[in-house]
Each structure stands twice: as structure tokens, then as C-alpha cells.
Design brief:
alpha+beta, 7-stranded antiparallel beta sheet, 6-stranded mixed beta sheet, 18 strands, 26% strand
Length: 419
């Protein structure tokens, strides 16, 4: 589970943001609280904000960190260089360091990983300035540019780098790393030569336990390799989930299955329509006949079921676009129900729809607002407001009490265009 995720100077977030899953002080919907490793964590975060405030960039910041950990470097390629850019309000701000940090629980251990890197706008390259890994509040390694520091505590040495029993061996390794590490290469990547177990543990966590979907219509959905293999090679898995979904939607006369045309190619959803007056049927591509909402549900059902069964963190940009809010209600309720969410799965999604601001559906600390001023974007939660328990969230949100609502006058734009 993710305990918290922090980022600074990332795109339109100039100041540090702490996106925390720790529960607030309010006593409400106690069944949503997941107690693990002395933390009381939340399973849901719903992010609100006007267009261009930076809702999607919260997901993007975590996606950049995920890519850095899995690839072992801050990428230099021009396409990805743009994707991980710093705050771009000025050239000076752009070349200020980007800071990313995450605290997460893997099995029964709590890990903190921090990285600080600088982007150079004119050279299109990045340089790592600082990096740190801790386990259960004990430092394992710390990096400042090319200088590497290891823990001197005997318990850490015995557990993670037993070869460092002699100080001269530590010095040899430190000098080797200093000479050979690239400026955009993570030390976490090199550290596997000392302690492969912990590096694989962290990399596997990011690969299989953090799913980020920023474009649900894209074929490049960021799914765990285990789920990709299961869904694409064993069509029974996908077909069973989809047809259970259609049954829930009372579409019993429609069957959708996935047809694999070629190896290493995306599977194609096929819709099979059964005539009401006979056993005959007709087949066609699902995209030609089904609504955008139905197709989107088909796309997200696998990640959601996988997340709830395996206890992973799922982040989706605009989960509810084209999908009826009652279905989203059911998805939110499943994550908040400990009889369904038995392994501590977490759901984060962005939305513009205020209908989920319901005190019976979400805790106040599960509702996040993103706002933007002239200098930076920032976040706060509904829990930051001193509101009575019986106060209706939706009514007061629409009255503009919790966040700045967009003021959009199309008539004024048209009038200005005439002039």
C-alpha cells in the first residue's frame, strides 16, 4: 500500500505536495480505514479540480517515479524528457530540482524512496542530485551526486550488505560506484549488485502493484505483466469478467468475447447478438455497435478486479467519463468495503462530477481538491474544512464553499471575438 507520495517542482506544482493516504481526525466511515504497519490508511482518493489545475499531473508524477525505478534512470530521450519536465513557469524554475518521494508498505516492511534530479532545458538531459532508500525508518543508502553513503548499524549491515563487515571493503565499493555511476542512473539500479533481494522487491512492487491509466482508450494501458499475460493468453479470464459485467447491466442478449488475431497483437473485442425469437446470432466488432461507456467498462473491469483481488493501487484519470455514476458508486463502495477489499487495494481517480460528494460514500479525507494560483498548483482535502457532520457536501460544494469553481462565460468569448 502507498502511505504517501510527495513531489515538488513537478510541472505546475512548484511547491511540495504531500498526497497522503493517512486518515484524518474525523470519525466517519470507519470501515474505510485499513490498519497496517502502525499506519491507518485510506483505500480511496477522489480528485476534483477545474481544467488545467493539474489533476492529471498528480498521476503523472507517480508515473515518472515508477518509470525511473523500473528503468533505473532518468531518461534522456526527447519524448520522455518533455514528459518529466520541471515546473515551467520560468527558465529559472525549470532548472530547479524535481523532488519525488514515496512511502509504501511491501509485505510487512515500510520503505521510503526519495530522488531529486535536475533537468537542463538547453541540453535535454537530466542529472540526479540526491537519492535515498530507507526500510522501517532505517537508512539503507544515501546518495549525493556520485557520493554514496551506507548505514553503519550492525543490524542493517548484517541484513542488507554482509560483505561490508570490513570498512576497507566499503571504501572499495564506494569508490567503484563513484567512478562508474552515470549522472542520470539511479543508485537503486546499481544497488542490486549488493542486495538484489530488496531491489527486486521494490521493482516488483512498482511493476505489479501500482497501475496508472491516464488514457483508458489507449492500447498502452499500464497493466501489471502478470495481468497482461493472464488476460491476453487466457481469453477465458477476460471473457468471463466481461460477460458477468454485461449480465449486471442486464444485457443478457449480448455476449462479448476477445479474439486474438496474431501473437503479440492486441486482442479484438467481438460482440455476439442473440436473436430473441431464435437461437441464431450475429457477430460484429464491438466498437461498431457498443457505446463508448460500455467499451470503457470492458477496458477497466480487468484492472479493477485484479486490484481488489491482489490488493494493488489503481490510479485512473477521469474514470467516470462516459460511465453512469451509479456504476462508479458501486466501484467506490467495493474499495470501501472490507469484505470485498480484503487485501488493502487503493483507488485514486480524477473527476469533474460532484455527485460522489456524499457523506455516506466517502470520508472527508478521501475527497481531494486541486487548485491553482498565479504561482503554483496545490491540493487540500475536504477534511481541512471545519464543517458539521450533518452538512451536505454536494450542496456546499456547488455553493463554492470548498474550492474555486470555474467561471466560464461562452457569451463573453463570442462577444470579444466579434470585437
Amino acid at each position: 500500500m502507498i502511505v504517501s507520495f510527495k513531489f515538488k517542482n513537478f510541472k505546475n506544482f512548484k511547491k511540495e505536495v504531500n498526497f497522503s493516504f493517512e486518515k484524518g481526525n474525523k470519525r466517519e466511515l470507519s470501515e474505510h480505514i485499513i490498519n497496517k504497519n502502525r499506519h491507518s490508511l485510506l483505500p480511496i482518493k477522489v480528485i476534483y479540480g477545474s481544467n488545467s489545475t493539474g489533476k492529471t499531473n498528480i498521476l503523472a508524477a507517480l508515473e515518472v517515479l515508477k518509470n525511473i525505478i523500473i528503468t533505473g534512470k532518468v531518461r534522456e530521450k526527447a519524448d520522455s524528457y518533455i514528459a518529466l519536465c520541471s515546473n515551467f513557469s520560468s527558465k529559472k524554475d525549470y532548472e530547479q530540482p524535481v523532488e519525488l518521494a514515496i512511502e509504501m508498505i511491501i509485505n510487512n516492511d515500510t520503505y521510503e524512496y526519495e530522488i531529486k534530479f535536475k533537468n537542463f532545458w538547453n541540453y535535454q538531459k537530466s542529472s540526479i542530485l540526491e537519492e535515498k532508500l530507507s526500510e522501517n525508518n532505517e537508512m539503507i543508502f544515501e546518495r549525493k551526486k556520485n557520493d554514496i553513503k551506507f548505514s553503519t548499524k550492525k543490524s542493517i549491515i548484517d541484513k542488507h550488505y554482509a560483505i561490508f563487515q570490513k570498512k576497507e571493503i566499503v571504501n572499495i565499493y564506494q569508490n567503484q560506484f563513484k567512478e562508474n555511476i552515470l549522472e542520470n542512473q539511479t543508485f537503486l539500479n546499481l544497488y542490486q549488485s549488493i542486495d538484489k533481494k530488496i531491489t527486486q522487491k521494490i521493482e516488483n512492487y512498482f511493476s505489479n502493484n501500482i497501475m496508472i491509466i491516464k488514457n483508458i482508450e489507449s492500447e498502452k494501458i499500464d497493466l501489471p505483466l502478470e495481468l497482461k499475460n493472464k488476460a491476453k493468453t487466457d481469453s477465458k479470464f477476460t471473457n468471463s469478467l466481461v460477460n458477468k459485467l454485461l449480465s449486471e447491466l442486464h444485457q443478457d442478449k449480448i455476449k462479448i468475447y476477445f479474439k486474438k488475431e496474431e501473437e503479440n497483437k492486441p486482442v479484438t473485442p467481438i460482440a455476439k447478438y442473440i436473436f430473441s425469437d431464435s437461437n441464431d446470432s450475429i457477430e460484429t466488432f464491438a466498437e461498431a455497435t457498443e457505446s463508448k461507456g460500455t467499451l470503457k467498462l470492458i477496458d477497466i473491469i480487468e484492472p479493477i478486479v485484479y486490484s481488489l483481488k491482489e490488493g494493488t493501487t489503481l490510479l485512473i484519470d477521469e474514470l467516470d467519463s462516459s460511465i453512469h455514476h451509479e456504476i462508479i458508486y458501486s466501484i467506490i463502495s467495493a474499495y470501501g468495503d472490507p469484505t470485498i477489499n480484503k487485501k488493502g487495494a487503493q483507488l485514486v481517480f480524477t473527476t469533474h462530477n460532484p455527485v460522489y460528494m456524499n457523506e455516506k460514500l466517502l470520508r472527508r479525507d478521501e475527497i481531494v481538491f486541486v487548485e491553482k494560483n498565479d504561482e503554483t498548483s496545490y491540493i487540500h482535502t475536504l477534511d481541512d474544512f471545519d464543517i458539521r457532520k450533518d452538512k451536505k457536501y454536494l450542496k456546499n460544494y456547488l455553493a463554492g464553499e470548498f474550492t474555486i469553481l470555474p467561471n466560464f462565460d461562452l457569451g463573453e468569448i463570442i462577444e470579444d471575438d466579434k470585437n
